[in-house]
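Action item from last week, closing it out:
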Amino acid sequence: MKTKNVIQQVLLSAVVASSSVAVYHYQVSLHQHQSENQNQKTTDTPPNYVHLMQQKASKIGGFEDVAEKVVHGVVHVKVEATYQQNYIDPFQEFFYGDGRRSAQRKALGFGSGVIISQDGYIVTNNHVIEGADKIEVVLNNKDTYLAKLIGTDPSTDIALLKVEAQNLHFLEFTNSETVRLGEWVLAVGNPLNLTSTVTAGIVSAKGRNLSLLKPDPDKGIFPIESFIQTDAAVNQGNSGGALVNTQGDVVGIVTAIASTTGAYAGYSFAVPANIVKKVTADLLQYGKVQRAFLGVGVANITDEIQEKYKLKNKNGVFIDNLNEKGAAAEGGLKKEDIIKKIGDKDILDVADLQKEVGQYRPGDVIRMALERQGELLSKDITLKNLEGGTQLTNPEEDSSSVSALGAVLVLPNAKEKKALNLAHGVKVTEINPNGKMAQAGIRDGFIVVKVGNQLVKTPKEFLAVLKNAKGGVLLEGIYPNGVVKYYALGF
């Protein structure tokens, strides 16, 4: 499938978003890669706001009970990563004309996480733990655990961790569709490396699409953004923390702030609980997110579209492109149709549609209401996966990533295999400079096709062959530019 068609097909994928970048005046609330704390400027809260807050709190029984309940279910996430720093040695530069040097450095970061089960499963943001060599979790009672990374989904900026503990205080998700504008919420996390911090605000908007995240079809990243916006104070380090309602149930995972400086400037954004529930369930059951695709290119309804097609209002999503073999086309949708509903859910714009499709898996059937030339129609659509089928990943088949020899091993995507004319292989990514892969000279993107004399088709198969290897092993593979290489690794 050509990249162009892939992008068109996945404009409405079941993916939400993730990336640690600043776009326009919005900045993702990233964990810090330095040890210095930032000074937080504070101002007195206006008396009328305090009075309103106290009045509202008294009606719901006070925020104190909610805060006390929630704070024990939110953890401090600390990460350690290794990176390569290039610099110029002035002595070598002056005397020998080449002072270029490289050194390994340690980066420390922090963020938050939410305990979602009594046996130690924890949700956080992908950008909090991305690239980490070591992940440490600190509970509210100061108990500390090393965390295992169960899985990540960069498209939703969600990651799932596991610590070996029992009888933990955990929080439950609520139905984020029932969250209302103006509803009081609490943000709980560890901003600026300050533990167990609770702030209050209201839900100021829903379905926010900020274009924070960039698609990368080659890596299977197709962002969908439908954030819950709140004015609860959030800063760097809150990422991965909980946004809860006045019953203490999680309505979202705090992910980003609106800021021109990197510090809180009025609004913050959270991935809705319904999306997080689906992603974490997939990671736990399948090792990867099961993404559903409509196979359409869409746009919000503009003044021009409304006038041209004589539409009564701008509610809905305009189909401007169709993949002929996609789910929508096979379900009877046509170019220039207006999508109005999925099930009982009104679709007002692209963010609404992305959020709704994002809660389904390949093979699921959705009832879609649409408008065509002034006529209202209803169609049943069977959603597909990226390859155009309806199959789910079999949990017994290993297509998930594994860590080995100082690197992360994943399956190459269909485009990569086609370009290199490969039927199988295991791709090497996220190489640790201190690991055996790096020491052998292997670079990111290398696709291993043989370990010794044995073909390898999955990451776990790669691990199984390694377990039987003694003394060392020969890796045969190919780089994205077509260069075939052999590497000998000693144990």
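Closing note: The longest helix spans residues 273-286.
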